[in-house]
From TrEMBL:
<comment type="similarity">
    <text>Belongs to the CFA/CMAS family.</text>
</comment>
<dbReference type="GO" id="GO:0032259">
    <property type="term" value="P:methylation"/>
</dbReference>
<keyword id="KW-0808">Transferase</keyword>
<dbReference type="InterPro" id="IPR050723">
    <property type="entry name" value="CFA/CMAS"/>
</dbReference>
<keyword id="KW-0949">S-adenosyl-L-methionine</keyword>
<dbReference type="GO" id="GO:0008610">
    <property type="term" value="P:lipid biosynthetic process"/>
</dbReference>
<dbReference type="InterPro" id="IPR003333">
    <property type="entry name" value="CMAS"/>
</dbReference>
<protein>
    <submittedName>
        <fullName>C17 cyclopropane fatty acid synthase CfaB</fullName>
    </submittedName>
</protein>
<dbReference type="Pfam" id="PF02353">
    <property type="entry name" value="CMAS"/>
</dbReference>
<dbReference type="GO" id="GO:0008168">
    <property type="term" value="F:methyltransferase activity"/>
</dbReference>
<keyword id="KW-0489">Methyltransferase</keyword>
<feature type="active site">
    <location>
        <position position="357"/>
    </location>
</feature>
<dbReference type="Pfam" id="PF25371">
    <property type="entry name" value="DUF7884"/>
</dbReference>
<dbReference type="InterPro" id="IPR057206">
    <property type="entry name" value="DUF7884"/>
</dbReference>
<keyword id="KW-0443">Lipid metabolism</keyword>
<dbReference type="InterPro" id="IPR029063">
    <property type="entry name" value="SAM-dependent_MTases_sf"/>
</dbReference>
<dbReference type="InterPro" id="IPR048027">
    <property type="entry name" value="CfaB-like"/>
</dbReference>
């Protein structure tokens, strides 16, 4: 099988070296910068028609090792799968997403280790796309700018009641309370996130303004009314089938005249099918179980059907590519520490995931949109200014 595969690989002229289970090495192209070490000979037959899911899974499970710059590893893997793989567009799934399933999926991803996430996130542990106002910012500056950008779009002001759906480690909740004097109620399904978030709220003396709870968005009390609602990096876990319910829930909890901000990853494809060449399948299997990405038109339709009016949409795709690149580089710089915090298999998942997603966002495989919506007043008016000038003042 290897004799058949090698000529095909050499036609691609990639800077790749193969190292076999018996120690033999062979250069596939000139000046190899990446070495693919095949440790399981049974994998060779599958490499005739590889996918990113196959290659990523083989690395995670220890069937192969990858040596060289991660960015080059991802690029070469993409080139190989495009040339040799079967595209076979997947039919998008529609999962039930009950409360127990969602809680288990969130715990799998976010309860890994707070210390591990601290290694490579910014100081406020904002685990979502940063905002690069000039493109020259470092990670901390970009995440502070993103929090400010969200609060400005929400026209947050002192005394506003803000609901933070999927509050994570509480970075946005604390920022909104500290910088805008808002009264914040945040919810998460991650026990580890909640523990650290509450510790940080207490450390900043914000207990009187920030309340965080372990709660599913479906259990939010319907007698509450908020001036503003923000959801960052959360609706990807809702699932296609539950998007209408999710949007109706937000619409019911914001007062007339209030604003709702949904910030999240969106699919390139209108039908929401996974990213091509197996990357989406890898993420679903190893990174975000049961995650589903709708196209911006699908979430937009659900927001509109809920009675909210979409007033602003902004794509931050390249901002997320840069954010993920920062995360990947920061993790790679601290691998020795990371190995002491999480199992080897988990570390392999995160290394491939961060570098692979940075590549995917750069290549327009997936997008990220901030969608701002208003709940119209009874006469159809709203409380927004006439222009966006205030955002950039």
């Amino acid at each position: 099988m290897l004799a058949t595969l090698l000529p095909t690989l050499r036609e691609l002229d990639l800077p790749l070296r193969l190292k076999l289970w018996d120690g033999k090495e062979m250069d596939i192209g000139p000046a190899p910068s990446v070495t693919l070490e095949i440790k399981d000979p049974n994998l060779v037959a599958q490499l005739a028609h590889p996918s990113l899911d196959l290659l990523g899974g083989a690395y995670v499970e220890g069937q192969i090792d990858l040596h060289g710059p991660l960015e080059e590893i991802i690029r070469i893997g993409d080139e190989i799968t495009r040339a040799l793989g079967d595209e076979g567009d997947s039919v998008p799934t529609r999962e039930a997403h009950d409360k127990a399933t969602d809680a288990e999926a969130i715990s799998y991803h976010y309860d890994l280790s707070n210390a591990f996430y601290q290694l490579w996130l910014d100081r406020d542990m904002v685990y979502s796309c940063g905002y690069f106002e000039t493109g020259t910012e470092d990670l901390d500056q970009a995440q502070q700018a993103k929090l400010r950008h969200l609060c400005r779009k929400l026209r947050l002001k002192p005394g506003d009641r803000l609901l933070d759906v999927g509050c994570g480690w509480g970075g946005l909740a604390r920022f909104a309370a500290r910088e805008y004097d808002a009264d914040v109620f945040g919810i998460t399904l991650s026990r580890e996130q909640l523990k650290l978030a509450r510790e940080r709220v207490a450390a900043e003396g914000l207990e009187g303004q920030v309340r965080l709870e372990l709660m599913d968005y479906r259990d939010l009390p319907q007698n509450e009314q908020f001036d503003k609602i923000v959801s960052v990096g959360m609706f990807e876990h809702v699932g296609h089938a539950n998007l209408p319910l999710y949007c109706r829930q937000l619409a019911s909890l914001v007062r007339p005249g209030g604003l709702v901000m949904n910030h999240g990853i969106t699919s390139r494809y209108i039908d929401g099918r996974p990213v091509s060449h197996g990357a989406g399948e890898f993420i679903d299997r190893y990174v975000f179980p049961h995650g589903e990405l709708p196209h911006v038109t699908e979430i937009g339709a659900c927001i509109s059907e809920s009675g909210l009016e979409i007033v602003d949409v902004e794509s931050l795709r390249l901002h997320y590519a840069r954010t993920l690149q920062f995360w990947s580089e920061r993790l790679e710089a601290r691998l020795d520490e990371a190995q002491r915090m999480v199992p080897e298999r988990a570390l392999r998942i995160w290394r491939i995931y961060l570098a692979g997603c940075a590549y995917g966002f750069r290549r327009n495989w997936i997008n990220l949109h901030q969608i701002l919506a208003s709940k119209p007043l009874p006469d159809g008016s709203h409380e927004l200014p006439w222009s966006r000038a205030d955002l950039y003042a």
